[in-house]
């Protein structure tokens, strides 16, 4: 399994430059972020990927779109891999509007409001990430799955920090949990 951090978003661009939350809800990708998604699509064509699990945030959906088209694999949108609600960019777009913008995607796992209204407690976020890892470790297709998600989620599952557009390959460890593969 591969965990891919979405491409650079408008939030990332402004926050990285200033250290201040710019107040951009559900931030879209920047032009660089779109290029990062296209580059990931080209690099990932050598992998035996059969599906994409994707966060419902716009930046993740925009990252997954060219990869899915290039690899010709389905995308399942799941809030299980969303970022922890801690900044303005972690306020999402409601399911109805996502369905209008992305009519070809499977949004069956997405509630109308799928993000935390307030900051998500850290323990709840870690429980969600741990449950996802345990579920995936038991999934027979885990090794053929790309997960398009976020920095905090990847950090919670693997303990690794990755840049926008970068990814971490995972394996199932001796305890039956997902873990980052050695670099």
TrEMBL record:
<dbReference type="GO" id="GO:0016791">
    <property type="term" value="F:phosphatase activity"/>
</dbReference>
<dbReference type="InterPro" id="IPR013078">
    <property type="entry name" value="His_Pase_superF_clade-1"/>
</dbReference>
<dbReference type="GO" id="GO:0005737">
    <property type="term" value="C:cytoplasm"/>
</dbReference>
<dbReference type="Pfam" id="PF00300">
    <property type="entry name" value="His_Phos_1"/>
</dbReference>
<dbReference type="InterPro" id="IPR050275">
    <property type="entry name" value="PGM_Phosphatase"/>
</dbReference>
<dbReference type="InterPro" id="IPR001345">
    <property type="entry name" value="PG/BPGM_mutase_AS"/>
</dbReference>
<protein>
    <submittedName>
        <fullName>Phosphoglycerate mutase</fullName>
    </submittedName>
</protein>
<dbReference type="InterPro" id="IPR029033">
    <property type="entry name" value="His_PPase_superfam"/>
</dbReference>
């Amino acid at each position: 399994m591969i965990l891919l951090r979405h491409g650079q978003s408008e939030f990332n661009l402004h926050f990285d430059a200033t250290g201040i939350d710019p107040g951009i809800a559900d931030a879209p990708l920047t032009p660089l972020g779109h290029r990062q998604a296209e580059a990931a699509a080209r690099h990932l064509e050598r992998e035996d990927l059969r599906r994409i699990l994707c966060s419902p945030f716009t930046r993740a959906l925009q990252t997954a779109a060219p990869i899915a088209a290039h690899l010709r694999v389905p995308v399942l949108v799941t809030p299980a891999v969303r970022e922890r609600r801690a900044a303005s960019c972690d306020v999402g777009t409601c399911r109805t509007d996502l369905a209008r913008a992305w009519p070809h995607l499977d949004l069956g796992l997405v509630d109308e409001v799928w993000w935390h209204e307030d900051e998500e407690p850290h323990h709840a976020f870690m429980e969600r990430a741990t449950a996802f890892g345990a579920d995936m470790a038991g999934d027979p297709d885990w090794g053929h799955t790309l997960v398009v998600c976020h920095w905090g989620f990847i950090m919670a599952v693997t303990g690794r920090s990755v840049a926008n557009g970068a990814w971490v390959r995972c394996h199932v460890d001796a305890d039956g949990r997902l873990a980052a593969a050695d670099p």
